[in-house]
Amino acid sequence: MKNSLSKILLVFGTTTLIASPALADYPERPVEMIVAYSAGGGTDIAARTLVSYLEEHLGADITVVNRPGAGGEVGFTELASAKPDGYTIGFINTPNVITIPIQRDTRYEMEDFTPVASVIDDPAGFNVHPDSQFKTLEDLIEYAKAHPGDISYGTTGVGSDDHLAALALERQAGVQMTHVPFPGSSDVRKALMGQHIDLGIFNMGEASRDAAAGRIRTLAQGAEERWEKAPDVPTLKEQGYDLVIGSNRGIAVPAGVPDEIINELSQAIAEAMQEEEFQAAADKQSLPLYYQNPQDYQKTLNTTQERFQALWDESPWAEQ
Amino acid sequence: MWENILSALPLLFSPPVLLSMAVGTTLGVFIGALPGLSATMGIAVLIPLTFTMDPLVALGMMAGIYNGAMYGGAIPAILLRIPGTPAGIATVFDGHPMAKKGQGLEAMKIALTSSAIGGSVSALALLLLSPPLAAMALKFGPVEVFWLAVFGLAAIAVLLSDVPVKGLVSACLGLLIGMVGIDSMTGNERFTFNVMELTGGINILVLLTGLYAIPPALTLAQEASLIKKGSGKDKLGSNRKTVAWTRLVPTWCRASVIGVIVGIIPGTGGNIAAMLSWNETRRAAKDKSRFGKGAPEGVAAAECANNADNAASLIPALTLGIPGSTVSAVILGGLLVHGMLPGPELFTRSAPVTYGFILAMLVTSIMLFIIGRLGARLFINVMYMPPLMLAPIIIALTTVGVFAINNSIFDVWLMLLLGLVGWGMERLQIPLAPAVLAVILGPIAESNLRRAMLIGGHDTGILFSSTIAMVMVGAIVLTILSPLIRKVIATLTRQQKRQSTDTTPRMADGHNET
């Protein structure tokens, strides 16, 4: 007993001594990871899958804390206002993290975050029923040109990446379609499979399985380059639209965290994502992995924000 | 299929899986019994813990929690008038009056047996009828779901108290509360008063716990200082009756069918199933006046239907990847984690595990019967507990439960505030049930109506464009007019006689005003 107590005291003493002058020992206590969505949801499961591998590479325990509410705003606000010591990290999801401050007054700005690493990038997919008359995106656009407002498209809600994808496409192609918002992607899929809507826009990660089973047909994907799981689906770019859009999930910290810590975190995430086991787990959940280092991730977020802001200034997607 | 079932059996009856099912079922009963905690949350919290488990061990536990929680919700509903889960609302109507009459144990036995039967029928439907029922689920688009919600709203009329105006006040309050949050159709904020936590709307569990759990606790605390010691015991056991099980068979049949059908329709859940089933049972009964005052059939109808919803809501989830309720959405997440991709492939490529899981839904329904039977005598002791202790326990448990939903202290304050509102409503004898049902059904009806109008190019014709829609419109008209028709017939045929069996005139009045 006595021995162990003195050991504890020794460890305690040395660590506190070393910790204060240099950050070299980060991390020396458990890290909290804020997930702005409910336990059991897509982001939560992805986060918890990553955490079990990230803990090893970071050398610290990570606790996932769910702070759902207001489309992610509750959790994002908490992350933005956390102490910038590297012990609070969190997932930020585009487009929500970007569009919420554009749409309404929030207690956080994008500048309140420092991005650490992009983890998942799920491009938007344009899907139709297998029996649909539209075989290609061109068919669809042509029909929409001839019949403005006739095509109904379902998305996962006002201001979702699917909705923004459709708005941008409408603008570039000079067509008009009717937006039907649904609460979640499974609702859009159901409406599409039941032929209640003409076009269902949801992420490729959610579409690939149904497409492979022949329950839906994917006309286009919003990726930069064709996603390896959907090599037959042309990108919007290939079809002449300057449009790369999807939902990105990555790790960020509150602004003000020292660069060394950000780099250490980013490095650990990169290593965790390299693990075969993690990749297999991500594959099971159909998560398109996409690592970006802090600088590149920042650039991606900046361009996305500029584009959404321009889109909003020109034609707001939600009533104000 | 039979060989798949046979191949799944040895897996299912291995000791670890049996143990996990028993643990899950027991856990589920407690989760359901605690106000604020729900099967959805229980399973969501469990999923990350199951990463390393054998798939069937994990899925068996999920099945147990699901079935256990649906029954668990009935325990506080009967004993304390507090529905443990949203699906327990309809159980309160007849369950608590039974307990008050000294038949609490009987009510719990009925709830348990009915839950087990509903759960088993549902599991059999999932096992044997998945493909055709899944095809039916797809037929329910925005139009059909809108009418279903209206059907449910029409049933609220039955719940109006003796003073219909009060019931309507309650229902309107519910509709207003249901509007709080961002309007999903336009992105407008409604009734959020610039409070960030309100933009996502008011969580139904927070509302339910606030309105239902706090007022009884306050009333208990109030009575505690007034009532003499030991009087709580009078409530229980003094009035034991043997349950006339055979008389419940028609109710079980009806409730099972309703539960299964509502279950497969995406976007609806056990609460709607239980409510519709209770209403239909009441409508089919000869003596309607017994309902709401402790009719055993009422408890059986509600509990059988909310468990019959369970496995059925997994039918579209497993075959199409489209969850029928929030619980099945979480279970779907659990399946994905274990590498089981929903779709027809689930029944071929991963057949042993899939059939094992479906059978686990059946086995846990039966386990529930045994575990619940043992637990009933334990739970009933709640009635013996002095109110002075019970009241703070209820408030402490609900506070913890509500905080756990979103890790949000705002929700706790909101629940306490709603608790005061609920207490005030009780004092004014304004019924609570219409408010809660309006909160659940209002947004479903509204968003689906608006979706249907968008799809149909703002032409109301789309609302009557399918057979299912027309059938449901017919059912709604019948529901609304039936008290009126019955009243007219009764007055015509028995003008001279005393109208003792007359359907209460209040309902006709209520409908006129609706």
TrEMBL record, chain A:
User: Does Signal count among this protein's keywords?
Assistant: yes
Keywords of the record: Receptor, Signal
Cite the InterPro entries for this sequence: BUG, Bug_dom1
The record, for Pfam families, names: TctC
Whether Amino-acid biosynthesis counts among this entry's keywords is no
The signal peptide here is 1-24
Q: Which SUPFAM superfamilies does the annotation name?
A: Periplasmic binding protein-like II
**So what family is this one in?**
Belongs to the UPF0065 (bug) family.
| PANTHER family to which the protein is assigned, alphabetical | BLR1237 PROTEIN, TRICARBOXYLATE-BINDING PROTEIN
The identity of this protein, by name, is Tripartite-type tricarboxylate transporter, receptor component TctC
Please tell me the species this chain comes from. Answer: Modicisalibacter muralis
Q: What is the lineage of its organism?
A: Bacteria, Pseudomonadati, Pseudomonadota, Gammaproteobacteria, Oceanospirillales
UniProtKB/TrEMBL annotation, chain B:
Where would I find the DUF112 domain in this sequence? 18-437
Identify the Pfam families for this entry.
TctA
TM region positions: 110-129, 141-161, 198-218, 255-278, 317-341, 353-376, 388-410, 430-449, 461-485
Q: Which domain of life is it from?
A: Bacteria
- Supply the InterPro entries for this chain: DUF112_TM
| Keywords assigned by UniProt, alphabetized | Membrane, Transmembrane, Transmembrane helix
- The leader peptide range reads none
PANTHER family in alphabetical order? TRICARBOXYLIC TRANSPORT PROTEIN (PTHR35342:SF5)
Task: Spell out the protein name for this chain.
Answer: Putative tricarboxylic transport membrane protein
Write down the species. Modicisalibacter muralis
